[in-house]
Design goal:
The structure is a homodimer. By secondary structure, chain A is of the alpha/beta class. Chain A is about 40% helix and about 15% strand. In chain A, the strands form 4 sheets. Chain A has an 8-stranded parallel barrel, surrounded by 6 helices. A 3-stranded antiparallel beta sheet of chain A has the order 1-2-3. In chain A, helix 15 crosses helix 16. The longest helix of chain A has 27 residues. Chain A is globular, with a radius of gyration of 21 Å. At the A-B interface, helix 15 and helix 16 of A face helix 15 and helix 16 of B. Chains A, B: Pathway: tRNA modification; tRNA-queuosine biosynthesis. Chains A, B: Its cofactor is Zn(2+). Chains A, B: Belongs to the queuine tRNA-ribosyltransferase family. Chains A, B: It is an enzyme of class 2 (transferase).
Chain lengths: ~400, ~400
């Protein structure tokens, strides 16, 4: 078994739980926030800074590393852990999401949450006619797409995605899936979901029959958009899926582009169906209010670029909501970003100084902002875990959100 | 006395020496390389990273901090040490060099060494007629100049420069000087040098009569271009200069734009004249071959942006000379940047990984490059110091440069 998961305690009358995930490179106490290191580096931070702020596990990106520097190079370098100097637990996503978003929307950068309200993206992601330029083409066997870096043509199948993830060598890898837009019609959603399930089986077969099958854990990805029936079907199909040798998935990802109000319903449907004893990862979600909903409904792992992206642009988390540290009022403010925060930034620097760094476009701004935001989110998830263990989750949720969202 | 300097050992038949500088915020073993933190931050690094690579003292920039965030704000924040989280020894330059370079060359960025061969800069720096736009205007009382940030008009006198440096609060501050181009004619050099000396005396008077006079050390700046007579005169005048209360400078800077081949001669002239018992800082010099010449000729302190600027752009020091890590050949090279280097970067990352970070425009590239280059230079100066203490300076110099410059 490349992975073990132990549930320590459950939230009474809810699906949420606190647990421990044991990987080949160390242990993760859950629920846990997975720090995103897209291109085998957490932007603006050293791995030691990431570890020191309490991160237990990081996620690198299959699509990006396949294109640059290339998964074969990462393998030659001794694998992801050694290449990037992160000896702890790691994940790679399957590349599906990026193939359909970056590969499709050549030259554009899109966040998962905004997609749903951005009609231009919905059009560029997939259009039913051939009038619009399309960079990703979906066939039943795989996807051809153009690199967002240089426009070169590539073709990824489920087997290829797994092979790339073998070369990268993370502890947890994901099955190749089609990430559909929730704006697609039902007929397309069903068709895409069928494809995602066929690809999941091919990913599972390929992985479990390889020598990496016993070293790396494989998670299947539940899709199904906003449809209860499809979400539940997807969770059931993937839960029961077995390779010819009888292997099943080691855990599950929940994918898709969620509208804010849909997310917790979709998670609930899915987690009611997924086997309780296996870990569940909600892909691309990381705002405080969403983390509470996810944890409550049984999510063990989250990843999101929001804390680091916000951190690099000066949007910083406080218990009273987000602030934009570049606002003039903070230049003369010599208090910490968040009084109750124990992060390196808050222990050593004032709002005024961080504001100065952003204004002067100094790189340390991004470092200090990312450290604070990541620590804020990670310490929030640590507190959620503690509250589960002490039977006080809902009290903590109420206290935190009443201050944060007021 | 805001500063003590003890010479521990001299190079036989040369002016070079190893010593200890005692400041209000700690001790500096000399010769020492001073790390430049222009805007109260060492670009791309935390203060802890700077300390861990062996830096003993840092230099912030009066001109830049005066414009942004303002010296009064730094004072209000508790001074430079507290504001930027660097508890060790600090310096500020006088702002003279930047007023004449950045203030004059609005919108341009210029390195000290290249100035001499860049005719467009020489013209823009000062022109004898009024046809060219000039942003800095020199009067006998001070300099008016336009901010390179927003074009706003400012006026700095020697007293104002010292007042700004009091507000910033570094352990060692510099007298306000006029930094002339070596391309100026002799008549102008003499005139400017006279002004620099009058400004030095005003800086000395103002500082030593203030309450900060006993807390911060003041260095005078020797100018005089490429002229032996002027350099020696400047060194003599500043050595003998005394305030009305009988105070003299606590140490000396050697300023000016040097051509590579002039530097060591100018330093030699000056240091033959300066009092042996006081520390000497060569301003803006930091390439390995120049450091050897400086140390040999009696320089105790150096500062330069080259290691960090090179580090941010991928030009990295090795014992065999500089390499451009972004070159294709390094992508598949999994050895350390420099085998013999003990820095964080070389201990944990390969050339291939650092190359990938630069190619992918990741911020960690600048961090790892700066750490390596600074450690390379600082460890070189540490070795020079050790070689002085063990009477082997010239042997070390020969060995190092024969490999480095071949």
């Amino acid at each position: 078994m490349p992975l073990r998961f132990v549930i320590e305690k459950k939230i009474p009358r809810a699906q949420g739980r606190a647990g421990t995930l044991l990987t080949a490179h160390g242990t993760v106490k859950t629920p846990a926030f997975v720090v995103v290191g897209t291109k085998a580096t957490i932007k603006a931070l050293t791995p030691e800074q990431v570890r020191d702020l309490g991160a237990q596990i990081i996620l690198a990106n299959t699509y990006h590393l396949y294109l640059e520097p290339g998964d074969n190079l990462v393998k030659k370098a001794g694998g992801l852990h050694k290449y990037m100097n992160w000896p702890g637990p790691t994940m790679t996503d399957s590349g599906g999401f990026q193939v359909f978003s970056l590969g499709a929307a050549y030259g554009k950068e899109l966040s998962k949450i905004t997609k749903i309200t951005d009609p231009s993206f919905l059009l560029s992601e997939r259009s039913s006619d051939s009038e619009l330029p399309r960079l990703a083409k979906i066939g039943d066997d795989g996807v051809s797409f153009r690199s967002h870096l240089d426009g070169s043509l590539h073709y990824i199948t489920p087997e290829k995605s797994i092979e790339i993830q073998h070369n990268i060598g993370a502890d947890i890898i994901f099955a190749f899936d089609e990430c559909t837009s929730p704006a697609e019609n039902l007929r397309y959603q069903e068709e895409a979901l069928g494809r995602t399930h066929r690809w999941a089986l091919r990913s599972l077969e390929y992985h479990k029959n390889s020598k990496n099958g016993s070293k790396q854990a494989l998670f299947g990805i539940v899709q199904g958009g906003r449809e209860e029936r499809l979400r539940k079907k997807s969770a059931k199909v993937l839960s029961e899926m077995k390779s010819q040798g009888g292997s099943s998935f080691d855990g599950f990802g929940i994918g898709g582009s969620f509208a804010k109000e849909d997310m917790s319903t979709a998670v609930k449907w899915v987690n009611e169906t997924l086997p309780e004893e296996k870990p569940r990862h909600l892909l691309g979600i990381g705002e405080p209010e969403d983390l509470f909903l996810g944890v409550e409904n049984g999510i063990d792992l989250f990843d999101c670029v929001a804390p680091t992206r916000n951190g690099r642009t000066g949007t910083l988390y406080t218990r009273k909501g987000k602030i934009n540290i570049t606002n003039k009022q903070f230049q003369n403010d010599f208090s910490a970003i968040e009084e109750k925060c124990d992060c390196y930034t808050c222990r050593n620097y004032s709002r005024g100084y961080v504001s100065h760094l952003f204004k002067a476009k100094e790189m340390l701004a991004a470092t200090l902002g990312s450290i604070h935001n990541l620590r804020f989110i990670i310490s929030l998830v640590e507190e959620m875990r503690k509250s589960i263990l002490t039977d006080s989750f809902f009290g903590f949720k109420k206290d935190f959100l009443s201050e944060y969202l007021r």
